Amino acid sequence: MRIAAILVAAGSGTRFGAEMPKQFLTIAGKQVIRHAAEALAAHVSLLQPVGEAESIEHALAGVNGLLPTVPGGATRQDSVRAGLEALAPYAPDVVLVHDAARPVIPAGTVPALIAALRESPGAIPGAPVADTLKRVDRGIITDTVSRTGLFRAQTPQAFRFAALLAAHRSGLTGATDDASLLEASGQTVEIVPGSDDNIKLTYPEDLIRLERIMSTPLIPRVGTGFDVHVFEAGRPLFLCGVQVPHDQGLAGHSDADVGIHALCDAIYGALAEGDIGRHFPPSEATWKDADSARFLVHAAERIAARGGRLANADVTLICERPKITPHAPAMIARLAGLLGVDTGRISVKATTTERLGFTGRGEGIAAQAVVCVLVPE
């Protein structure tokens, strides 16, 4: 059986109110239309998009079975017919018609539709209406409508190709979906179970629901870091990526940025990927006097490689001198830039040990850091 699909993407999305058609918005890292196309491509050998060619073909590059886009018509019915006529030379047995603004096709929907076509020329997924229905005239309820036997029609809708093409060529007009064309010509259309997850992106609140459904669940992982460096004369002092005026710098193989080192260790710890020495061994000459910003960028890249994101980071610098507070805003901005997050996710503060220990004697600086990283389960 040769199965084709028409992906209807000619709508302008005026009800959504975005600057671009809603099917080109991004959810869970992909454009809505690509989610829909990839879901269809898992079941079909031919995928016929209908709409504006340049935008569609850019969004769907590399999708299996993709045919050249054909322009849409003035109505949805016109657009579907354009897709059918483009598919006619391929003579598929079955055609699925799907809205590009529906990125979720639940597992089992397409197999159920195909199975239903053994008995009927058409089949659609539908969800029973659960809410009480009211008929309203100028803001006043005039009637309560029985919901018995009422279903919300969804896509993809499935048809024997010849039957749907004939229905579109018959001259019937005013169809809001393809099933209604077969119904009007007296042909049977079955309904298979739909899903509340099969949402058509129509209003801004739909985007929130779809993001919740499609986003990979993330779990929090906490990491801590601690580092210490002694003062050394003749070196610049770098703290949290900022050069701080002082009469001494910190001794170390790299630039000895104690704040960044503690923060890197916290991130690596949250990811269970060791510590900074594992990734940038002090025995290697490559890292001699290296800018520690490179280490933090690498740590941020490790978060991204795991499909995660930084929820927040808190760095505490422990020293008697220099004074940290005047430089804290610049440090926060620098760390946020290196990590690619908003400054509201970063905290830098300072404390002393009340003149106790080596930091209390002014011999060096210590730092501790805590981070929360959100990663997929």
In short:
The chain has 377 residues and is an alpha+beta fold. The protein has helices at residues 32-41, 53-59, 76-87, 109-116, 161-169, 178-184, 204-214, 258-270, 276-279, 293-305, 328-339, 357-360, and strands at 3-9, 26-27, 30-31, 46-51, 94-99, 122-128, 133-137, 140-145, 151-153, 157-160, 189-193, 218-233, 237-239, 242-244, 248-250, 309-318, 346-351, 364-376.
Spell out the blueprint of helices and strands:
Layout: E1 3-9, E2 26-27, E3 30-31, H1 32-41, E4 46-51, H2 53-59, H3 76-87, E5 94-99, H4 109-116, E6 122-128, E7 133-137, E8 140-145, E9 151-153, E10 157-160, H5 161-169, H6 178-184, E11 189-193, H7 204-214, E12 218-233, E13 237-239, E14 242-244, E15 248-250, H8 258-270, H9 276-279, H10 293-305, E16 309-318, H11 328-339, E17 346-351, H12 357-360, E18 364-376
Parallel strand pairs: 1-4, 1-5, 6-11, 16-17
Antiparallel strand pairs: 2-3, 5-10, 6-9, 6-10, 7-8, 12-15, 12-18, 13-14, 16-18
